[in-house]
TrEMBL record:
Residues 189-468 form the Hydantoinase A/oxoprolinase domain. Residues 2-169 form the Hydantoinase/oxoprolinase N-terminal domain. The lineage of its organism: Bacteria, Pseudomonadati, Thermodesulfobacteriota, Thermodesulfobacteria, Thermodesulfobacteriales. This is 5-oxoprolinase. It holds the Pfam family Hydantoinase_A. GO terms for biological process: glutathione metabolic process. InterPro entries: Hydant_A_N, Hydantoinase_A, Oxoprolinase-like.
Length: 648
């Protein structure tokens, strides 16, 4: 049996298949030691394969809890990691603060060597220099080392020599840039490699806990590109796990949406700690310019935008008397005020006070929510701004919605996409409570909500396959066809060797090839699928992004990219049918119009083909959908809900 586990900031979700149907459950996360929740959840399950989405690496970096390491770079270029790029995060903020760095200057060593821009050796790496470097690292007592030499992407001989010596003499964990990111732009390559070194010891210790507990099981880790890798590879390439959990949800939305005939989706994943949004236009969107707390990560990751607005986002009144929400979160511990462990008013407390969450039905009735505690926590804020607790709760929801609408606009409107042409694919434990308001504000005509929305990222993990990306910077003219073929052949050979080493059947894999192109002289490039007419593909992409084409200007191929993907077709699924604890009843919620009657319906009793007009609350063990009065829903297969707005 295969089990998928997604660790979130508030809950840890489990998905597996039993008697042909997918089964789902959640337990509270254990942020201080994420493995504890996983081990507890797996106690009762007999499984052979575990696929895991984790935020351990991301959280370790954001909290600066990685391992101290040494960065070795070409002598004279020791400050690259600190100088970065000239762009400012906030152009007009004179007091902008740089994020805390993850390495100190004392741990950056220059190495006497030099490779030229064409790969020629300008200054050879001498044996005495290698011995000197090893002595210095030994004196520092550090075991994690990052290597990033100038132009090593085109000739890695010096990095290979030093890596071999460090592993042999010091038994060091070495991250070499020619393996992590064999591409040009030394700052991005150095940053990516250094982050990997910083995180490798953390992710290794975490994964060894799982391996020690389940030594006979197959364990795979979700990557940021939507596929998974085995445990050994994840321990070596920690950088590939930075968007591990959220990537599972986006991949799940892609295959789930396609199975229902929807290929243009905006994913909206609202959990307890944050909200992740992503735009899907027929396929997974990737970016090579991801920033992890302002530091560049050059590997291909699914283009997900995160905003600090979740169910646990804390509401407060600032020094100027203005009501604000987030980005600070109450997380799983102490959690929202209604959990009874703290007294922080959150978005979840606001939804509870407004009647959108039923305390006796939350988490399948297994987790008691204290509504009076939520009301008291929000009342304290209400007194400071001169509103009633219910008006304040409504204000908290509207502010959170504004944050999330801005995030959706960032991945759609700001990139030239019209959100009205897309379907809002909603999941996460809190997503269904806010989907109608967001769709209305952004003009999105339809909303899709899967029945198991509260554990949907784990669903995506369950159906994920092995994906591996390869890349190589080439910097040649487009018309240099022979060189292009040679470089492409080398990249294919590299992928082939990888599969053979893994013992995989080559016939089981699909191959996708892409090229980064730019007009000669441009500073940045665009990625297009590799085909017969690269020029035309690039011009179409350039016109889309920049609004013009230079028809007679020469083109440069900057980087070639190859992705291998295990081509197991999506065979569909069936969701577990649960015995409903109730059918429906009447309740009350608070809206802009005051208190209103509302239908409260158990998700389990809905039948395929059935239609329903709002307002209504659709209750499931791990999520609630608030169907607002200007929307109606239709029940699709597997009790998936399709919402559409009623035109006035």
């Amino acid at each position: 049996m295969k089990v998928a586990v997604d660790t979130g900031g508030t809950f840890t979700d489990f998905v597996w298949r039993e008697e042909g149907a997918l089964k789902i459950f959640k337990i509270s996360s254990t942020p201080r030691d994420p493995a504890l929740a996983i081990l507890k959840g797996l106690e009762e399950l007999e499984f052979e394969t575990l696929i895991h989405g984790t935020t351990v690496a991301t959280n370790a970096f954001l909290e600066r809890k990685g391992e101290e390491f040494v960065l070795l770079t070409t002598a004279g270029f020791e400050d690259i990691i600190f100088i970065g790029r000239q762009t400012r995060p906030k152009l007009y903020d004179l007091f902008v603060e740089k994020p805390k760095h993850f390495i100190t200057p004392e741990n950056v060593f220059g190495v006497k060597e030099r490779i030229g821009v064409r790969g020629e050796i300008i200054r050879a790496l001498e044996e005495e220099e290698i011995k000197r470097v090893i002595r210095e690292i030994k004196n520092r007592g550090l075991k994690s080392v990052a290597l990033s030499f100038l132009h090593s992407y085109i000739n890695p001989i010096h990095e290979k020599m030093l890596k071999e010596s460090l592993e042999k003499e010091l038994k060091a964990e070495v991250s070499a840039s020619f393996e992590i990111l064999p591409e040009f732009r030394e700052y991005e390559r150095t940053s990516t490699t250094a982050i990997n070194s910083y995180l490798v010891p953390v992710i290794r210790r975490y994964l060894e806990t799982l391996k020690d507990k389940f030594p006979q099981k197959q364990i795979f880790i979700q990557q940021s590109n939507g596929g998974f890798i085995d445990l050994k590879e994840a321990q070596k390439y920690a950088i590939h796990t930075i968007l591990s959990g959220p990537a599972g949800g986006v991949y799940g939305a892609l295959i789930f949406g396609k199975s229902l005939g929807f290929e243009k989706l905006i994913t909206f994943d609202m959990g307890g700690t944050s909200t992740d949004v992503c735009l899907i236009d027929g396929g997974l969107p990737f970016t090579k310019e991801y920033l992890l707390d302002s530091f560049p990560v050059g590997i291909p990751v699914i283009d997900i935008h995160t905003v600090g607005a979740g169910g646990g986002s804390i509401a407060y009144v600032d020094a100027g008397g203005v009501l604000k929400v987030g980005p600070q979160s109450a997380g799983a511990d102490p959690g929202p005020a209604c959990y009874g462990r703290g007294f922080l008013p959150t978005v979840t407390d606001a939804n509870l006070v407004l009647g959108r969450i039923l305390p006796e039905r939350f988490y399948g009735g297994k987790l008691h929510l204290d509504k009076e505690r939520s009301l008291k926590a929000i009342s304290e804020i209400a007194q400071r701004i001169g509103l009633s607790p219910f008006e304040t709760a409504l204000g908290i929801i509207k502010i959170a919605n504004t944050h999330m609408a801005r995030a959706i606009s960032k991945v759609s409107v700001e990139r030239g996409f019209d959100p009205r042409e897309f379907v809002l694919f909603t999941y996460g434990g809190s997503g269904g409570l806010h989907a109608c308001a967001l769709a209305r504000d952004l003009g999105i005509p339809k909303i899709l909500v899967p029945k198991f929305a509260g554990a949907f990222s784990a669903f995506g993990l369950y159906f994920a396959n092995l994906i591996k990306d390869f890349s190589q910077t080439v910097l040649i003219r487009l018309e240099e066809k022979a060189k292009l073929r040679d470089y492409l052949s080398e990249l294919k050979d590299k992928a082939l060797r990888y599969l053979l080493k893994k013992g995989e059947n080559i016939e089981d894999y699909e191959v996708e090839i892409f090229a980064d192109l730019r007009y000669l002289g441009q500073g940045y490039e665009l990625t297009v699928p590799f085909g017969e007419d690269l020029k035309r593909a690039f011009e179409e992409e350039h016109a889309k992004f920049y609004g013009y084409v230079l028809y007679n200007h020469p083109l440069e191929v900057v980087t070639l990219r190859l992705r291998i993907r295990k081509g197991t077709p999506f065979a569909g699924f069936q969701v577990e049918e649960r015995t409903p604890s109730f059918s429906h009843f009447e309740g009350k919620i608070y809206t802009d119009k005051g208190f209103q009657d509302i239908k409260i319906i158990n998700w389990e009793v809905l039948k395929e083909g059935e239609s329903l007009k709002g307002p209504a609350l659709i209750i499931e063990d791990f999520t609630t959908l608030y169907l607002e009065e200007d929307f109606y829903l239709k029940v699709l297969k597997n009790k998936t809900l399709l919402l559409e707005r009623i035109e006035s």
